[in-house]
Structure formats: C-alpha cells, structure tokens
From TrEMBL:
It catalyses: dITP + H2O = dIMP + diphosphate + H(+); ITP + H2O = IMP + diphosphate + H(+); XTP + H2O = XMP + diphosphate + H(+). Its EC number is 3.6.1.66. Substrate binds at S14, R15, N16, A17, K18, K19, S79, F165, G166, Y167, D168, K193, H198, R199. SUPFAM superfamilies: ITPase-like (SSF52972). This is dITP/XTP pyrophosphatase. One of its GO terms (molecular function) is ITP diphosphatase activity. One of its GO terms (biological process) is nucleotide metabolic process. Belongs to the HAM1 NTPase family. Homodimer. Pyrophosphatase that catalyzes the hydrolysis of nucleoside triphosphates to their monophosphate derivatives, with a high preference for the non-canonical purine nucleotides XTP (xanthosine triphosphate), dITP (deoxyinosine triphosphate) and ITP. Seems to function as a house-cleaning enzyme that removes non-canonical purine nucleotides from the nucleotide pool, thus preventing their incorporation into DNA/RNA and avoiding chromosomal lesions. PANTHER family: INOSINE TRIPHOSPHATE PYROPHOSPHATASE, INOSINE TRIPHOSPHATE PYROPHOSPHATASE/HAM1 PROTEIN.
Length: 217
C-alpha cells in the first residue's frame, strides 16, 4: 500500500491528468502522505466498458476492476453534465456525447448546437458525480463505498476559460453568480473550483472514509 518513500498509495481509474491532480489535491488534505496513481502508473489491464445507466453503476464497475487489477485501494468516479432542456442529457453519455472518442471540443460544439435556440432562462443544468471507493478484504473480497456530489448552474453560449476539462468552459455555477461573478468552471482557480464542484463535494465526503481505511492498513 506504500512506496519506497512510505507514502500511502491509492489508485484512481483514470488517465485524465487534470482529474488525477484534482483528486491528489483534495485527498491530501485528509491524508497528507497520499500518492494518487493513475492508469498510466500501473501495469495495463483490460478496462471495463461503462455500460451502466447510472453514474454510481459506472463508478462501481471501474473501481472493482481497479482493485482486481492492482490490489490497491481504488477510487473511481463517473460524472457528467445533465441539462434541463435536454431531459437530463448528456448525463452518463457526457464524455462521448459527440461520438465514441472522449473529444471535449466536439462534445462542447454539439451541446452548443443543440441549445442554440434555447433561451437563457431555460439553460439550467447541473454537474453530478458519483465517487466509488473500494479496497480488498479477506480472500478475494472487496468493501465498497459510494458518495455523490452535485453543482447546479447554467450552460452559457460561448467557451470561456482554459482550466478544468470537459464542459467546464461552458458552465457557470450558481454559487459563482451568488458570489458576484459569472466565471465558468474553467475560469476558476483550483481552490475555488474544488470548494463548489460536484467532484469536490463528493471527494470531501469520501475522503474521511479513505483516510480511515488507509491509516488502518
């Protein structure tokens, strides 16, 4: 569970460097000596298809595969943007809304096209995130925990900002408007985004569980 520097290791089933950095930043507030490893830091394994109709289901698919492949306590999340005017879509299809490839630019372009005629007052949306944490127990067993986080806001009409990833460049959270600005998630500094984001809320909820488990291993 630890490397040569005695850091506690946890595996995150992702290759998204920004997402891994975000999880490292949030989790180390509770486990200062934690080292978050991504898919590129472990031996390759067959990644399961995200076939479940819910964020929780897909997060659990990924975390079970991670524990089985690495033997490490593992975290996986599934998150997406749910747009009111699109009946909650893209939802679990957010990462591949414009096709099978995880192409942020194509996804954002398609979403803007679909909402082109939707008036500003009907462009409400929310980001949602399910974070699953699993770790080996007994002979081949696994203990699992799942938490959720949500960030409400709206989809704007142009791309703004160069931080974050995915639909961050199109999304203005209600919390930023209430605070007196209209920054997109991609325009927020990391600490400000972590404080209000769906993933930040979910990770803050799961972090004490992770800390309790890791300190006891």
């Amino acid at each position: 569970m630890t490397d040569g520097d005695q850091r506690v290791q946890v595996f995150v089933a992702s290759r998204n460097a920004k997402k891994i950095a975000e999880m490292q930043r949030l989790l180390e507030q509770h486990v200062p000596d934690i080292q978050v490893l991504g898919l590129d830091d472990v031996a390759p394994y067959d990644e399961p298809a995200e076939t479940e109709p819910t964020f929780e289901g897909n997060a659990l698919i990924k975390v079970r595969a991670g524990v089985a492949a690495t033997g490490l306590p593992s975290i996986a999340d599934d998150s997406g943007l749910c747009v009111d005017a699109l009946n909650g879509m893209p939802g679990v299809l957010s990462a591949r809304w414009a096709g099978t490839a995880k192409d942020d630019a194509a996804n954002n372009d398609l979403l803007l096209q679909q909402l082109e005629d939707v008036p500003d007052e009907r462009r409400g949306a929310h980001f949602t995130c399910a974070v699953a944490f699993g770790y080996p127990v007994g002979a081949g067993g696994i203990s699992e925990h799942v938490v959720h986080g949500e960030m409400r806001g709206r989809v704007i009409r142009e791309l703004r900002g160069d931080g974050g990833f995915g639909y961050d460049v199109l999304f203005v959270a209600d919390d930023t408007v209430a605070g007196g600005d209209c920054h997109t998630s991609a325009e927020l500094d990391p600490d400000a985004k972590d404080a209000i984001s769906h993933r930040g809320k979910a990770l803050r909820a799961i972090a004490p569980v992770v800390a309790d488990v890791l300190t006891g291993l």
